[in-house]
Amino acid sequence: MRRGLGRPGAAGERGGRPSARAARSLFVEPPTDAALSVSELTRRIKGLLEGSTGQLAVAGEIAGLKASPSGHVYFSLKDAGALIDCVLWRSAAGRVGEFPRDGDQVVVRGRLSVYEPRGRYQLVVSSFAGGRGKGDLWLKFEETRERLAAEGLFAAERKRKLPPSPRSVGIVTSPTGAAIRDMLKILTRRAPGVRVIVSPCLVQGSGAAAEIVRALARLDRWGGADVIIVGRGGGSFEDLWPFNEEAVARAIAGTRTPVVSAVGHETDFSLADFAADARAATPSEAAERVVPDRAALLARVSAAAAGLARALSGLVRTRRARLIRAARSRLFRRPEDILMPRWQRLDDALVRLAAGADASLLAARNRLTAAETRLSCLSPRQVLSRGYAIALDGEGRVLLDAARTEAGARIGVILHRGRLDARVERARQPPEPR
Question: 289-305, pLDDT tens digit by residue?
Fold first, then answer.
């Protein structure tokens, strides 16, 4: 830490930090029958720590920045050797224009404080100052993420659907952490019959990434797991770093078994999250997501069965009532009362149909006789019967003009009865009209 430029707050009558004598007086060993309570000890530490420092300017990298529903902002400030919790109250947060993000290098101003319920010291931040930039790990994370995304390793079309009801669940995590206990508890409660296979590995520190890759490969090569959960509980950005290693991301993307990534808390994102087929905010959420709740399923089945029974009962009651009404109706008591009027209407219809058919046939016959009469009047033979004849030239064509023949030509004459073969003695033309 670096001391701020402002004057430290007063700690005694003359100001400045308490003297060594004053500090020792806070922790003088009390009599046996007057032991300090934890609360009293914490209050004394709080008074000593807060009274010995004023405003501080501290440089470091932002980690785990999270805004609470109340408007207060919590985060950690860290460097290569240490980490300190920080809080920015809502009143001060409203004065911050642009908030930094995880991985940003910042200079904050604030004062030291002790949070008594947990006995933890923290920095109460009043403002952000100084330059901003990304920490080395964060820059490496972003560079690797962009490169793998460009390769298509995180593409949505590569994601596989999780099985709706897996028979076995594989877990890649530390066998001693709280995450595995939480997941086993939830899996046992939600799906007692599901087989759980744990492939243990380190999840933090040197060599953790290689162990995660090997543990994942063991489960995938075995092939008995329907879905695999890879993850761990919360921690700092550095603690979660093995899940940001390129080898881990490629191993997750290359499995044959669907993988759910559950690294850290809801606000933590890792390359494992991007490479996995699904992301869960926490390991507990991953356990809830991969298996259906047996109790909830049974409740839904029971509700569905009850609903089906009610529906069938209602259907039976409705059909029974309809049957009773039908049995009491006139159709069942005297069916002939329904059928006889219909038979009578059918007989009337047949009589009308026969009469109509006879009338139509007579009208058609009369129209045919009239047509025959008209056609007969137009027949050439009918004309010949009145003394007319038809003259034909030597080729059998009808002669209409005397100019078309000459004296001595042979012609035919068709009479009403028979035909005459004759020779023309003279052809006379009709006089010219005046």
Answer: 999 887 777 788 888 99
Res. 20: pLDDT tops 70:
no
Strands 83-88 and 105-115: unpaired
Which is more confidently placed, 339 or 38?
A: 38
Q: How far apart are CA 140 and CA 85, in angstroms?
A: 24
Report the alpha-carbon distance of residue 403 to residue 382 in Å, rounded: 27
CB-based contacts of 273, cutoff 8 Å, min separation 6: 243, 261, 263, 279
Cβ proximity of 197 and 169 under 8 Å: yes
Strands laid side by side in the 278-279 sheet: 195-200, 168-173, 227-232, 259-263, 278-279
Region 15-27: what's the mean pLDDT? 48
Please tell me whether residue 354 adopts helix, strand or coil conformation: helix
CA distance 279 to 289: 10
User: What whole-number distance in Å separates Cα of residue 26 and Cα of residue 428?
Assistant: 168
CATH class of the 2-130 domain in this structure: mainly beta
Domain parsing of the chain, residue ranges: 2-130, 138-292, 295-328, 333-375, 384-423
Asked whether residue 32 carries a pLDDT value surpassing 80, the answer given is no
